[in-house]
Design goal:
heterodimer; A: 313 residues; mainly alpha; MetI-like fold; 13 helices; 77% helix; 0% strand; globular; B: 530 residues; alpha+beta; D-Maltodextrin-Binding Protein, domain 2; Dipeptide-binding Protein, domain 1; Dipeptide-binding Protein, domain 3; 3 domains; 7-stranded mixed β-sheet; 21 strands; 31% helix
């Protein structure tokens, strides 16, 4: 197992190298010029050119790429073209809100979606099942920003129960922290809940047809124990896989959610950096996201062994 | 007080002390001004970038030797006064007492001179001053001297320029930074201090009141002139990119001021009695259609002129701010409506009956033979985007062989730097907007320059415009300035470096408990709660 983990961690290196090359090349050929954005609308072409030179943007592709890779190998993600702040500092400023949003969304989604899926499978064909499926279709169909606006309108504007926007660090207290995350987490989690609920239901339906479930019932095991101890554990592998895949969904959704609820997270940082062509920040954040995604996949693979002892690495 | 605050107060406090605690908790909030600015503050050096948001940041923390009042008259700000000698060729400025930078150091002439010199290398008005200046020198700690080649009456107006990189004064060690590099710290001597430790670009910018600031002792606040008295201990800029979210935050009282709500949001605020919408600047912004003068079809003056009968300023402005005539101006020339130099010379081609057919006739007479043209414009900046949409429709109706390229702003500003012909990725036409300050006089009026490849994007060559601009700088009085301004407009409407497509008001929205806002731009002195 240990050797497997080491191998997988080492395997992230070529993956990250490919991502780095891809991201850098894509940005190099993409239109847009940070010097022109910096100089502003009133700048002359000469001003733009001087700024471009001072930022080193006039250097050839290979020179810029080599310098960037060399910096990364030394643990330096570079400095933002605009703010003059180290990219690592900017990421550090933004990681807590995004991480908080992800965690609250994950907890919320799993604690709602898994029981929903289990109950829908148990009550297959009934009104409850149809209601769960209808909710799932709705969750898939309604865009995150629409859910976000509706929640903000009712819970913040109309009823004044929760704040419209912003983020309070965890260090300032649990409730202030959670208060700002409830609406965004529900908005972001709506698709995720729908996805997990559907997969849980489908997998549970398959498992509930198995002989050992029939045997358990024949032995007089209670319904709750059958569902949550026998069936759910055996249905867990595909559910965990979907939860893992859903992390990417959450990263994408976080960009929209952070915009709607003005949460200063990595999603907003990425969009802002792309719009103004802040290359070092874009490269740093994309590298971070891909690294996280590789790690999440590794964690999911390791979780398989927990739920299915037959799996060995 | 918000309902949830009350709930929290009720939960947290005992019955006897609950309301008292709530009142105490409200005090810091009352001393804090929360505002959603027009854009994210990404760069902190207002000399390095001309971005308006960085200019606003500059007015928070820096001061200028002279301020401009609402009539654009220069008034001493950091200066106690000046002495003009040697027939106007020597100007000695004395700094007023009590000026200190935020790091506690006194402001000396040794700080002012490199600050002005750095500004003169980047700013067009400053470059003009540099061209008539033999030297800017330190006389002693309190005095600096401009040794001029000849009298230059516009010197003080230049030093007090409000927009497009004002001549902000920085400590000597920062002012010595290459003007094409960003300064590393944000330390000024202005009424607010920048909280670097709380700066989170894209999220929050925080300023605190500069307790050591000594405002000028007389006058009333007027644009950047007069006493800059800060009434809030803390000012927070909350960067909220989503207009609906910012609107909701203003309605719930989470923020106090929303600098630039879009027109549809302004209508929403009209129904809320806790919010008022007012013009941020009594003067309008101006929209322009810019031609690329280097390549066909608009390298031909006749081709540029042919489009005039089809330009409806009302159409362009309605697209930007809606159909309420209160919010826009038509019959707009090359200077900001409402300013002393605005005039109606040679505007007949823009104000007579509008006719697409007439424009088509003129196009044919000018020799248009279906050459390709490219209109570039952004989709993510409100006014230029709306004007580009109207322009795109117009060039299609006129029958141009048009390639309409709509991208994000970052791409547009890159593409407009291209001097290549259309077939090699160049452009022919674009739309953008400028603030009232930029077009108030010829000094900062980029699109009016006719200095060819040295001019603003589009690169028109119009030597007469340059001569008139130079003459304006030397004008001894307003009457002469106005005469020159009329002639500039006549030449501009003939050469057409650009076409004015109207002017529009920029509105701002505030909670009703705020008063004393200084008009012009987002300034934070004068404004108070109550």
């Amino acid at each position: 197992m240990f050797a497997y983990v080491v191998r997988r961690v080492l395997a992230t290196i070529p993956v990250m190298a490919v991502v780095a090359l891809f991201v850098f090349s894509l940005l190099y050929i993409a239109p847009g010029d940070p010097a022109a954005v910096i100089a502003g609308d009133q700048a002359t072409p000469q001003d733009v050119e001087r700024i471009r030179e001072s930022l080193g943007l006039d250097r050839p592709y290979l020179v810029r790429f080599s310098a960037w890779v060399w910096d990364i190998l030394r643990g330096d993600l570079g400095v933002s073209i605009f703010t003059n702040l180290p990219v690592s500092t900017m990421i550090a400023q933004r990681i807590e809100p995004t991480l908080s949003l992800m965690i609250v969304t994950l907890i919320l989604a799993i604690s709602i979606a898994v029981p929903m899926g289990v109950v829908a499978a148990w009550k297959q064909g009934t009104l409850i099942d149809r209601a769960v499926m209808a909710f799932a279709v709705l969750g898939f169909s309604v865009p995150v920003f629409v859910v976000g606006y509706l929640l903000a309108y009712y819970f913040a504007l109309e009823w004044d129960l929760l704040p419209v926007q912003g983020y309070t660090p965890f260090s300032e207290g649990f409730w202030p922290w959670l208060e700002n995350l409830i609406l965004p987490a529900i908005a972001l989690g709506s698709v995720y809940i729908a996805l997990i609920a559907r997969i849980t239901r489908a997998t549970m339906l398959e498992v509930l047809q198995q002989d050992y479930i029939r045997t358990a019932r024949a032995k007089g095991v209670g319904q709750r124990a059958i569902l949550f101890l026998h069936a759910l554990k055996n249905a867990a592998v595909p559910i965990v896989t979907v939860i893992g895949i859903g992390i990417a969904l959450l990263i994408g959704g976080a960009v929209v959610t952070e915009s709607v609820f003005a949460i200063p997270g990595l999603g907003r940082l990425t969009v802002d950096a792309i719009l103004r062509r802040d290359y070092p920040v874009i490269q740093g954040v994309v590298l971070l996201f891909s690294f996280v995604y590789v790690l999440v996949n590794l964690a999911i693979d390791l979780l398989y062994t927990l739920f299915d002892p037959r799996i060995r690495y | 007080m918000l309902r949830r605050d009350l709930m929290k107060a009720g939960l947290a406090a005992g019955a006897a002390t609950g309301l008292q605690r709530a009142a105490v908790a409200q005090t810091p909030r009352a001393r804090t001004l929360r505002m959603v600015p027009q854009a994210n503050l990404t760069s902190l050096d207002p000399i390095w970038t001309t971005a308006n948001i960085t200019r606003n940041h500059g007015h928070m923390i820096y001061d200028t030797l002279y301020g401009l009042d609402a009539e654009f008259r220069p008034q001493p700000q950091m200066a106690a006064g000046h002495v003009v000698e040697d027939g106007g060729r020597s100007v000695t400025i004395t700094l007023r007492d009590g000026l200190r930078f935020h790091d506690g150091e006194p402001v000396r002439a040794q700080d002012v001179v490199p600050s002005v010199q750095r500004w003169m290398r980047r700013n067009p008005f400053g470059q003009k001053i540099a061209s008539v200046t033999d030297a800017v020198e330190v006389v002693d700690d309190k005095r600096l001297r401009f040794r001029l080649k000849r009298p230059f009456p516009a010197l003080f107006a230049g030093l007090g320029q409000v927009s497009n990189s004002p001549a902000f004064i920085m400590p000597e060690r920062l002012a010595n930074t290459d003007p094409f590099q960003q300064v590393r710290e944000a330390i000024g001597s202005g009424p607010f201090r920048f909280k670097a430790d709380e700066y989170n670009s894209g999220s929050m910018v925080v300023y605190t009141k500069n307790e050591a600031y000594v405002p000028v002792s007389s006058g009333t606040p007027s644009l950047t002139a007069g006493p800059k008295v800060a009434h809030f201990d803390r000012v927070e800029w909350h960067i909220i990119v989503d207009a609906a979210t910012a609107a909701a935050a203003l309605q719930t009282g989470e923020i106090d001021w929303y600098e630039q709500p879009p027109p549809e949001i302004q209508q929403l605020f009209g129904r809320n009695r806790n919010i008022r919408v007012e013009t941020i600047d009594p003067l309008p912004l101006i929209g322009i259609l810019r031609f690329n003068h280097l390549h066909p079809p608009f390298d031909s003056k006749a081709m540029r002129q042919s489009i005039l009968p089809a330009i409806s300023q009302e159409d362009f402005m309605s697209a930007v701010v809606g159909t309420n005539p209160r919010d826009y101006r038509t019959g707009v020339g090359v200077f900001t409506p409402g300013t002393p130099l605005a005039n109606d010379a040679a505007l007949a081609p823009l104000t007579g009956p509008r006719s697409i057919e007439r424009a088509k006739e003129l196009m044919r007479a000018a020799g248009y033979t279906n050459q390709p043209m490219r209109l570039i414009g952004p989709t993510d900046i409100l006014a230029p985007s709306a004007m580009t949409q109207v322009g795109a429709d117009l060039v299609r109706r006129l029958g141009y062989n048009a390639d309409i390229v709509l991208t994000d702003w970052g791409t547009t500003v890159q593409r407009r730097t291209s001097r290549e012909p259309v077939e090699r990725g160049g452009w022919s036409m674009l739309f953008t907007a400028f603030s009232s300050f930029d077009f108030a006089n010829p000094a900062a009026h980029f699109p009016l320059r006719g200095n060819g490849t040295g001019a603003w994007f589009g690169w028109p060559t119009a030597p007469r415009l340059e001569e008139l601009r130079d003459a304006w700088f030397e004008a001894p009085d307003l009457a002469t300035e106005q005469r020159i301004a009329r002639e500039i407009q006549e030449v501009a409407m003939d050469e057409l470096p650009y076409v004015p497509v109207g002017a529009y008001m920029s509105n701002t929205a505030l909670r009703n408990d705020l008063s004393g806002r200084v008009a012009g731009l987002a300034l934070f002195w004068g404004i108070r709660r109550g």
